[in-house]
Design a protein that fits this description.
- The complex is a heterodimer of chains A (166) and B (179).
- Chain A is an alpha+beta fold and 166 residues long.
- Chain A has two domains: 85 residues, no CATH class; 72 residues, CRO Repressor (2-Layer Sandwich), CATH 3.30.240.20.
- Chain A contains seven helices and five strands, in the order αααααββααβββ.
- In chain A, helix 1 packs antiparallel against helix 3 and helix 1 crosses helix 4.
- Chain B is rod-shaped, with a radius of gyration of 32 Å.
- The chains are: A alpha+beta (166), B mainly beta (179).
Chain lengths: 166, 179
């Protein structure tokens, strides 16, 4: 019973930490963040198992974790309110060729990151971007501006989501 | 879409007002749809932590009692516990006769006790898993304690006996060690 409670606690705790850190941490990790992430299992493993190395305990822990994953995914699909609590909202970074500075500051995204994402889909100027959106999963999605004739400004530039700073 | 006010600058590449929003995705009637495999598997998956919360996979102890003409024996033992965990096995023997019993031999079935990799017995056994308590006055109880370390999983069953002269009290115990 205690294992279930401990896994629930760690799951909520780790989720809350990621939620507090923001979308950025989901896809891009600095060396410091990577070290932090590697430390988490080290810190929690003993607290979770409590020297109980039985297969039974491992199965209970794993099934509790999978159950939590399923419940949170099902609940966030069914309930918008729960989804809002659980997931970060997308944020507009580029609005019709202009950087939205407050969004960049809030998400700690440098213009370089936006430009890097643009370059990956063949865009070089901000005015070629109609929308730049930081999605819930931490990726920057770019919607290129259309020319007057309805075509995209560059032949290679198609609407695309690109992962930042891979 | 999250609120995204801009800080206004003179740079025309910076946004200077409330941004319009990209087209939102259409709404659908959301409901959970599970495959047959999921319908079978998910209840099993969810059942494990729920059953654990109700103590199904936890440690459980039992008590059994046996008596003869002169000896009463109460045994507190683990009915189930987990691999490599330690559980106490307590045997209380009591003289229910009106005379002093010089010796009571408390013996644990080797078939049972040898299934546990480490057994610590107090008082120390004379021979393997065999403890003798002496000079037990009428009404007096003595405790023979052991610690069992579950190394081999599965069901383990055996008998515990307390013998004084030709009088024997005996009870069987059964313990399950989770893998």
């Amino acid at each position: 019973m205690e294992t279930v409670v401990r896994v629930v606690f760690v799951y909520v705790f780790v989720w809350a930490c990621f939620r507090l850190l923001g979308k950025r941490e989901l896809t891009q990790m600095s060396p410091f963040e990577l070290v932090t992430l590697l430390f988490i299992p080290q810190l929690f493993s003993r607290a979770l198992t409590r020297q109980d190395y039985s297969m039974t305990n491992a199965v209970i822990g794993a099934t509790t974790l999978f159950t939590l994953v399923f419940i949170t995914s099902a609940a966030s699909y069914r309930s918008k309110r729960f989804a809002r609590v659980l997931q970060a909202n997308p944020r507009i970074l580029v609005d019709h060729g202009r950087l939205v500075v407050e969004s960049l500051n809030r998400e700690r995204i440098a213009p370089n990151d936006v430009f890097s994402a643009m370059h990956k889909v063949g865009l070089e100027r901000l005015d070629q971007v109609e929308w730049g959106i930081l999605e819930s999963d931490g990726k920057i999605a770019l919607i290129p501006s259309r020319a007057l004739d309805g075509t995209f400004p560059l032949a290679t530039a198609q609407p695309a989501a690109t992962r930042r700073s891979e | 879409m999250a609120d995204s006010k801009s800080s206004i600058g003179r740079d025309p590449s910076l946004h200077q007002g409330e941004p319009r929003e990209p087209v939102r995705p259409p709404e659908i009637a959301r409901r959970l749809s599970l495959t047959r495999k999921q319908l079978l598997g998910l209840p099993l998956l969810v059942a494990v932590p729920i059953l654990t919360l109700f103590g199904v996979f936890g440690e459980q102890r039992g008590e059994t009692r046996a008596a003869s003409a002169t000896i009463e024996m109460r045994i507190h033992y683990p009915t189930r516990f987990r691999y490599r965990q330690v559980q106490p096995l307590d045997i209380a023997v009591r003289n229910i006769s009106s005379t002093v019993l010089d010796t009571i031999d408390v013996a644990r079935d080797t078939a049972y006790i040898s299934r546990f990799s480490s057994v610590r017995i107090d008082p120390a056994p004379n021979t393997a898993y065999h403890v003798t308590v002496t000079h037990v006055r009428p009404g007096e109880s003595r405790l023979v304690a052991a610690e069992l370390w579950g190394e081999r999983y599965g069901w383990h069953e055996g008998r515990l006996t307390a013998t004084s002269r030709a009088d024997t009290a005996s009870a069987s115990v059964r313990t399950f060690v989770f893998p």
